[in-house]
Amino acid sequence: MRAPPPSLLPLLLATAFLSPSPSIATDKLDQTASIAGNQTLESAGGVFRLGFFVPPGSSDGRAYLGIWYASIPEKTVVWVANRRNPVVRPPGVLTLSSDGRLVILDGRNATVWSSDNAAGSGGVATRATAQLLDNGDLVVSHGGESQSGSTTGRTSVAWESFDYPTDTLLPGMKLGVDGRSGISRNITSWRSAADPSPGAYTFKLVSGGLPEFFLFRGLSKTYASGPWNGAELTGVPNLKSRDFIFTVLSNPDETYYTYYVSDPSVLSRFVLNGTTGQVQRFSWHRGGGGGGGWSGFWHFPLDPCDSYARCGAFGYCDVGQSPLCSCLPGFRPRSPQRWSLGDGSGGCVRTTNLSCGAGDGFWTVSRMKLPEATSATVHAGVTMDQCRKMCLGNCSCRAYAAADVSGGINRGCVIWAVDLIDMRQYPEVVQDVYIRLAQSEVDALTAAGRRRPAVGTTSFH
């Protein structure tokens, strides 16, 4: 439908909001059209729907532009455009401006929210369209733009909702940082079930060293995925399954996590729960008579050992033992009194100081979540023998490991010149980490026949 004259806009919007209105039978919006009230766009395959909604349980009637599943009876919102700026003076209307921006107007024709201006200040975007895809992405494309208004004849993606997640990651979305565009793709929980404004929890990539994803409550870290070692996130070694495929890509241009499901007909979502503070994965289970429900597959944090840095520096956590915290071989509790009370947050200190030279050696642990590596240093193209020598040549080096173990081959090297924190032990092998100790400690451990830190380590008593 063509955009109405400005003088008639408030009246028509009010009519659209108050009266039943059929969905627009298209997945696209162009610069001559708008949607308002209960009008929606629907993706070509009928998977997703875009429109205005009022959260269930909301008492103030504030409206938001969102995307939800169209093919299931339960209205599950996966993206919200104006989560910080609701429409408080209904009705809301969505249009495409002359410079190709998505714009939400309220009942007084005031701008509530707009997408980035990809055409530049004062630019004109010709043949701009917004299309809702079957993967849940809302994509704004320009048929060509210029400052003068002339067309270029090329179609380009100017903006997409996948670059601005809210609390949900859908298959194919990225969680991470794009260095070229400067975009950081994070997910942040809703404030409550009735309020989609940003809540207390954020899950995001923290750049530096090896890629690693952290859950924050405000400014405090509460959980970490463990560093990516080219094969897995070492804090979630059991994440992979036959139907769930994920990877972490890291190069000079961008670093991100993404996932797919092997059966594209399965509805799957990865959501940050603002009540529990957990990252959860759900899939839709179809029931008889068109019903069904969301089934949870996994969630993190999973257990007490998933609490960030629970056992402090040079300590590690193991849910298979009681108490939970132990010191790495060659270390003892920093505060024996607190340690005896079950508080391992103070961590551990060396039993024997390093000599910073030939008098030092290494002890291998292999069933550990790698220590937090955001402040570690990665050296590409370095062999493990070269890495060992580099560590011994740096008095601050505490440990080293292969940076990439994909395919069972060690590639590159990561060196920790900081305290080792946020480690936990698993029943299965993750990868070798070489802990620097005084050679006398290595000799004593070898003589005692200790091959695993789980055997005879210092623990709560």
UniProtKB/TrEMBL annotation:
Its EC number is 2.7.11.1. Residues 356-438 form the Apple domain. Residues 1-25 form the signal peptide. Its main location: membrane. One of its GO terms (biological process) is recognition of pollen. One of its GO terms (cellular component) is plasma membrane. This is non-specific serine/threonine protein kinase. It comes from Aegilops tauschii subsp. strangulata (Goatgrass).
